[in-house]
Amino acid sequence: MVISSGMQSMDTMRRVYELVKPINPNFCFLQCTSAYPLLPEDVNLRVIQEFKSAFPDIPIGYSGHENGIAITVAAIALGAKVVERHVTLDKTWKGTDHQASLEPNELADLVRSIRLVEKSMGSSVKRLLPCEMPCLNKVTFYVLVFILEVCVMSL
């Protein structure tokens, strides 16, 4: 079950959680602001982190009504596990959400971008990576040369 939080408060979402959890433990909440198109300053992506903290046992996602894909991709970087976007074949069609919907090529771009961000999240452990070795070896060589030059000049 997917539950969008558009037009709701945090108190309401807590009550929804308490109501749904005993009946169906397989559900997720989506951060959503119900406006078409949604302005960036009204998105409130930080709610994703608040939902993750308040409801750690369910997936948290994002339902986007903004233009473009950047904000939805940012939601993934902030931990959204589910995304929902409207899709249209023509943004000029009548209706409240066609303008804020994605056309098929934008949907493909969104999926590619999400996969790239997921891949780039990597590990939380900071360590020297194998891909850094050529650079390290090069820098180490020049540092040693510099140290030798300083030593020779000080003689």
From TrEMBL:
<protein>
    <recommendedName>
        <fullName>PseI/NeuA/B-like domain-containing protein</fullName>
    </recommendedName>
</protein>
<dbReference type="InterPro" id="IPR013132">
    <property type="entry name" value="PseI/NeuA/B-like_N"/>
</dbReference>
<dbReference type="InterPro" id="IPR013785">
    <property type="entry name" value="Aldolase_TIM"/>
</dbReference>
<dbReference type="GO" id="GO:0016051">
    <property type="term" value="P:carbohydrate biosynthetic process"/>
</dbReference>
<dbReference type="GO" id="GO:0047444">
    <property type="term" value="F:N-acylneuraminate-9-phosphate synthase activity"/>
</dbReference>
<dbReference type="Pfam" id="PF03102">
    <property type="entry name" value="NeuB"/>
</dbReference>
<feature type="domain" description="PseI/NeuA/B-like">
    <location>
        <begin position="1"/>
        <end position="126"/>
    </location>
</feature>
<dbReference type="InterPro" id="IPR051690">
    <property type="entry name" value="PseI-like"/>
</dbReference>
